[in-house]
Batch of 2 targets.
Target 1
Amino acid sequence: MDNLSRLAIHTMTTKPWDLPTAVAKFSAAGVPGVGVWRQWLAGRPLAESRAMLADNGLSAVSLVRGGFFPGLNAAERTAALDDTRRALDEAAAVGAPQVVLVCGARPELSLPENRRQITEGVAACLDHARQTGVKLALEPLHPMYADCRSAINTIGQCNDMIDQLGDTWLGIAADVYHIWWDPQLESEIARAGRRIAAFHACDWLVPTTDLVLDRGMPGDGVIDIGGLRAMVEAAGYQGFTEVELLSRRWWAEEPDHVLATMKASHRC
Amino acid sequence: MDNLSRLAIHTMTTKPWDLPTAVAKFSAAGVPGVGVWRQWLAGRPLAESRAMLADNGLSAVSLVRGGFFPGLNAAERTAALDDTRRALDEAAAVGAPQVVLVCGARPELSLPENRRQITEGVAACLDHARQTGVKLALEPLHPMYADCRSAINTIGQCNDMIDQLGDTWLGIAADVYHIWWDPQLESEIARAGRRIAAFHACDWLVPTTDLVLDRGMPGDGVIDIGGLRAMVEAAGYQGFTEVELLSRRWWAEEPDHVLATMKASHRC
């Protein structure tokens, strides 16, 4: 088994565990990184969560998530900006260097309008990113989510947007589940270079029985995770591999077993 | 309601009807085109099916489907070539100008190897296409099918393959369900130009509850079908709009109602 020095786990992966349990368990297992979903911060002061991470020797790799920029009216769009700025504040407070952006999509809007509003929304949050010192990591989502989750679906679109908006406070969260099929993946990751700010791992199961909640444990599906890790490393990425499972199956298992399985399957 | 002169319906759309029933019903409804799935030709001489279409004044727009080129060994790959050549023979026999190719993908193979075998398979069928006078229409499938149905997922990949193999006997079947999300769609359709050989319509439902069998009736989802039709027309396409629904919901309805709904929703 490779060493675990680059392994991070999203709190959503071990969903039944609250933050105190998750950080204690991750720490005891020798897992050094945690992807913090915002729900796990609720109910206690942010400073207390930060201390909890530090006391357990854990790095907050990323805060998940902001975005969802498209809206049907100005009030909705403003609410999304406010929420993303709050996410930046929370990330700064707990010591996470970046907020992952799920850019959003509203079925009522056209695809070009969704994309226009996303670019506008990202641009509107850059100042706050600078003020908080926290990056925004654009996460392209699989094209099967273009209807209602994100109209940003390829690394290429992220590169185009960053070309336009600048890369000081913008990065790209490369999640193998969303991008593995892309025929332009290698060239777009090379083009992204140091923009790659996160590497998320899970697997595509055959068959996949649910569009959202049937992600597989690394190694159980068809994605060449090692090959994709090599691609982002060739582009300059040296950070964590963050295991992020949204899975009814794994959420129903005993989280200690999920954690042990992840450790055993960790390769890169 | 627009006139129906460009409307074609796939036999799979009205699945409960056999070929005699479907052609009689389509004809009576004033629908001039039919996309023939090969299962509908089983059990009678091909000449009889051809006569049945002619007697009802129907054009066979396409035969569905050949392809599935990747295999785990030479015997599997040869079987796929033989089957695709048989499809070309069948298309010629019933008067269909093209065979739609679902290119295939095997989860056991890497994505690059799947793609390599597809290009090799298509190349190996070109002679037979020339001999039968029937085109092969590459259909890019949605990226959510890259694991086990097709590793060809964008119009761009089809253009690249046709650049390599020549466009005399190759075309592209543009199915809105598979391509609507693509950020490069407009430029790749423009690049395709006259290569666009078919235009398939259905809709992406919100939510989509099944990866395969939950396609929507045109108008019931988020796809800008009229906008995509305008795109292929700008590229030079003037052929049929083929309604192809794979849908547990619509298959469970009375096919007369499905047909009436399609006629009423037909816009382009």
Note: The longest strand of chain A covers residues 59-67.
Target 2
Amino acid sequence: MRTLGARLSRTAPGEVEIELPYREALTQQHGFLHAGIVTAVMDSACGYAAFSLMPPGAGVLSVEFKVNLLAPAKGEVLIARGRVLRAGRTISVCQADGIMRSGDSETPVATMLATIMTVMGRPDVVR
Amino acid sequence: MRTLGARLSRTAPGEVEIELPYREALTQQHGFLHAGIVTAVMDSACGYAAFSLMPPGAGVLSVEFKVNLLAPAKGEVLIARGRVLRAGRTISVCQADGIMRSGDSETPVATMLATIMTVMGRPDVVR
Amino acid sequence: MRTLGARLSRTAPGEVEIELPYREALTQQHGFLHAGIVTAVMDSACGYAAFSLMPPGAGVLSVEFKVNLLAPAKGEVLIARGRVLRAGRTISVCQADGIMRSGDSETPVATMLATIMTVMGRPDVVR
Amino acid sequence: MRTLGARLSRTAPGEVEIELPYREALTQQHGFLHAGIVTAVMDSACGYAAFSLMPPGAGVLSVEFKVNLLAPAKGEVLIARGRVLRAGRTISVCQADGIMRSGDSETPVATMLATIMTVMGRPDVVR
């Protein structure tokens, strides 16, 4: 996320918001943010939302995600809002909205439904 | 795909293979290819596989995809093999395997099931 | 839905609610409503939600759906709340929550993210 | 599955086949097998395929599944072929094809990509 220029703009238990300013280096051939970038940021929002409810020392792994692309990702800032639908001991189910903001207007561009796993005792996956 | 350094390594009607050499700039914090990159390359493999069966002048749009992450994406080259499961007039269903190759060994790292839409008369989405 | 004993309990543009009373004939080996039944009712909720925003004469086809199972489906009534996230000319994206109600308490048991297609001129798929 | 009239027609480590003869009681309004039924049988095929690779005493839980519907489910017998793509200690990833057979011809009607969890020490979920 740091490499992309993303930052955590809001956190609450079970909810996070990540912002990524538009940059030309992250676009596909028509000047929109690439779906892979939008997916990566929404996946991070899901992972951090799940992580916010986990015990100390836990790490998170994305098991799977499904993304529906709703509109081209054009605008000034990509906002990914992730929240936990169900927090389990091993498995958490999270949802994220991907939104492009330009000035005061927000346009939904993608939505994600994801499965996140809690892993203990694996320092390599602690964020 | 060009920006990432990916290339189409094989095409046949309804099937394509895309290769992306490992580069540090495309990794996450542990040195593996980022899931967003793996997803983007598999999405492209699905899109091109569907495109290979479409009439002239058609363009493709990804409607949605679902990805299961199977293993960390470490190795020398990411290979995404996409194929069409059902080619419809409007909707095609495609599957892609994401594989990391190192020397002679191949490790499955992700699998995708995707829905691709044929769009006519929209030069902006012709690849 | 009629065969199952389900009924449309609420409709608004882009939103519907379907209720299915618990019956033993619809359960799996542990006495919970079977995941296939829960899925079928949520799929119907998505289809009707999309249908509520379509022009006259349109029919709906489910292209795909993804379901996360959140908890065993035990309780008195299954409620499936479907709503449209994006209504397109050809493709609509819908979300549904599956909830078990017992007395005053509601427990989320499943969530669905689905892709629904509008089909015109096909009387066989008009609901 | 017993209630539906389904039977396990083939098993091998990591692979199973379930057959369900067509019955009118299992159809939707146009006489095709209902998508919920097709989904339930494919989900069972995924669960049993994962179960076939698990240690003694293990039980299986479906975490989530995604289904693409490919064609109307008409024919004499529904065949669900499930196989394990990745068998993990906690999480297995499985794929299933749903096929309608009539005489000698087979038509793919659906495909599933599913996440199955191994649960130990819970006799209530042992199949």
Note: The helical segments of chain C are 35-51.
